């Protein structure tokens, strides 16, 4: 998968790497991530809920986009409300990008997914654009690679920042475990094979920021994650 790990462009090489702040949201403590360039610009990944809290953290910052890894409510349930509030605050439409189109049925049922666990206020999501494996987003002048890692959900994508040596893995790869695949549309073999092909081929020092729990690195997970021993 050389295309996934190719050299960084000269443009983003000249900038300091993006910073990442994890903000646990919803009762499921999902790690929403705020990426910042240090000059007042930001991108929000997986705003599952707690939108008022996110808006206060983002005060004074210009949000370029909202990115989604997959369609589960704890990752997307606050995206529509956040988009609405930020677009009004900033006076321009803030796009929702992702996940892969295979998760459309989940985005269309996010409110119902939340309600089934007693969580009110989750909203369905209609992204401005679905993302595809192998494309590179240019956000805040930085390149973010999109990798499709299905198995937890059909349309799950992860976001790899080569310059910052960081990958946002959503519910694919966690510290010491992997995402659940027991839902009707899950596929355990597919998840493990895609982690092998598309995540374990990244540089070992790459920091893994998962959708739940503590960070890790690609090297640590290759060596110690029990699913791959
Ligand atoms: Zn999930």
Q: What radius of gyration results from the CA coordinates?
A: 16 Å
The rounded distance between the terminal residues' Cα atoms is 22 Å
Order the strands across the largest sheet as they lie in space.
6-7-8-9-12-13
| Number of separate domains | 1
Secondary structure topology:
Blueprint: H1 10-13, E1 19-25, E2 30-36, E3 41-45, H2 51-57, E4 62-67, H3 73-76, H4 79-90, E5 96-97, H5 104-107, H6 110-116, E6 136-139, E7 142-148, E8 157-161, E9 166-170, E10 173-174, E11 177-178, H7 188-199, E12 207-210, E13 216-217, H8 218-224
Parallel strand pairs: 3-4, 4-5, 9-12
Antiparallel strand pairs: 1-2, 2-3, 6-7, 7-8, 8-9, 10-11, 12-13
Describe this structure in words.
It is built from eight helices and 13 strands. The chain has 229 residues and is of the alpha+beta class. The protein has one domain: Ribonuclease Z/Hydroxyacylglutathione hydrolase-like (Metallo-beta-lactamase, Chain A, 4-Layer Sandwich), CATH 3.60.15.10. A hairpin with a 4-residue loop joins β2 and β3. The radius of gyration is 16 Å and the shape is globular. It starts with 9 loop residues before the first helix and ends in a 5-residue tail after the last helix. Zinc ion binds next to loops.
């Amino acid at each position: 998968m050389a295309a996934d790990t190719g050299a960084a462009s000269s443009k983003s090489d000249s900038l300091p790497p993006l910073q990442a702040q994890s903000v646990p949201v919803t009762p499921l403590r999902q790690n929403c991530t705020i990426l910042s360039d240090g000059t007042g610009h930001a991108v929000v990944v997986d705003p599952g809920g707690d939108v008022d809290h996110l808006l206060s953290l983002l005060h004074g910052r210009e949000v370029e986009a909202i990115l989604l890894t997959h369609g589960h409510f704890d990752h997307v349930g606050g995206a529509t409300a956040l988009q609405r509030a930020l677009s009004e605050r900033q006076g321009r439409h803030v796009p929702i990008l992702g996940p892969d189109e295979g998760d459309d049925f989940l985005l269309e049922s996010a409110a119902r997914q939340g309600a089934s666990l007693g969580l009110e206020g989750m909203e369905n999501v209609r992204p401005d654009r679905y993302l595809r494996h192998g494309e590179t987003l240019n956000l805040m002048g930085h390149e973010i690679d999109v990798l499709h890692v299905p198995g937890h959900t059909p349309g799950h994508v992860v976001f790899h920042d080569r310059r910052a040596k960081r990958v946002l893995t959503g519910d694919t790869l966690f510290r010491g475990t992997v995402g659940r695949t027991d839902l009707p549309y899950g596929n355990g073999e597919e998840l493990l094979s895609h982690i092998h092909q598309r995540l374990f081929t990244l540089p070992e020092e790459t920091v893994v920021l998962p959708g739940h729990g503590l960070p890790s690195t690609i090297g640590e997970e290759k060596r110690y994650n029990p699913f791959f021993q």
